[in-house]
Amino acid sequence: MKFIASKIDLKSMYLFELEEFFKGIGQPRFRAGQVFSWLHSGVTDFDHMTNLPKSLREELKEKAYIADVIIEKRMKSNIDDTVKYLYRLNDGEYIESVLMKYNHGYTVCVSTQVGCRMGCSFCASGINGLCRNLTASEILSQIMAAERDNGIRVSNVVMMGMGEPLDNFDNSIRFLKLVSDDKGMNIGLRHISLSTSGVVSGIEKLAEYNLPITLSVSLHAPNDKIRSSMMPVNKKWNVEALLKACRDYQKVTTRRISFEYALISGVNDTDECANELAVKLRGIMSHINLIPANPVRENDFKKPDQKRILHFKELLEKHGLTATVRRTLGADINASCGQLRRSVKEANENANIQQN
Ligand code: SAH
Ligand code: SF4
Asked: Which residue, judged by its Cα, is nearest atom 19 of ligand 1?
């Protein structure tokens, strides 16, 4: 399907907005409910909306489009049931998404932007900067496509794919409201995590919505010296400002905050780092996710050995913190986001160079 900017993105609309839209084209209100159900059950063609008159379907094709993502590449892990997708969007851009199977059901890791402008040194998603924000419908479609491809229902979502969700704030909120709508996919907000690199203005705004999602903060370092060397965002909002925003967020939402900490050998994995981290997180109801850093071809970061990782975890626990080492799902398919899109982009660029 061709992407036509002037057409209306119905899948990103709330039910009340659809009602206004149908009123505007002289249709009864119940049409909005019918179309909302079709869109959120994953239908991608107006002709499949069988309870709409043919004339209305034709009118919708003229005025609107149904956003979708097309599976360009699918990689299934041989170790576990993780499936990594490279999706093509209606305008030809690519994003990544990962489907993971846990005991409690299926989780999808969704992207929120094409690329990312935060520029973290260890991450493949930000290497070429931000291309564009995703619409709410494009974020929803990543889940729908994984469900369709595997004949399953997804119960949990993590906004931890490519992009910084709080840098695409309005569409991320719209996605959260739509995906949890009981007339739509009905995935409870308690089953959704939103991960941020520490966009303090976004955390403050998110607190105003007081959603029962899990806020996950990519901290990765206990002090400004190390954090600024890895994450440019720390120069705008430093560790102190970020942790203050976390405390304020927790006061409002009373929700435990999860802190991501990617362990990079010789950078942030020392005993001093663990002790400093424990001191800084005092008074915050937290859970720390230790992630052995995934090497990205563009940098030379290495993950610490298993002994060091476990020692780091034990030190945190001695201080009374709870920490887990994240299971590395899909280790054989490079399941951390940003890497696949980048390799496809590079392949295309190389092909272009060869053609010229
Ligand atoms: N932009 C958001 C969400 C997407 S990144 C954020 O930064 O939080 C999701 C998680 O993957 C973040 O915790 C990020 O720091 C981590 N990550 C990115 N590249 C990684 C790598 N090479 N190894 C380990 N974790 C990585
Ligand atoms: Fe963007 Fe997150 Fe990657 Fe940083 S870690 S560049 S914020 S996607």
From this structure: 123
Q: Say yes or no: CB of residue 199 within 6 Å of ligand 2.
A: no
Angle (CA) 176 177 180, round 5°: 80
Which pLDDT tens digit goes with each residue over 56-67?
999 999 999 999
Tell me the whole-structure pTM to 2 decimals: 0.93
Side by side, which strands form the sheet with 94-102? 70-76, 83-88, 94-102, 105-109, 154-159, 192-196, 214-218, 257-263, 286-292, 323-325
Q: Find out whether the beta carbon of 339 lies less than 6 Å from any atom of ligand 1.
A: no
**Alpha carbon of 241 to ligand 2 centroid (Å):** 19
Neighbouring C-beta atoms of residue 111, cutoff 10 Å = 29
Atom nearest to 162 CA in ligand 2: 8
Residue 175's φ and ψ, nearest 5 degrees, are -60, -50
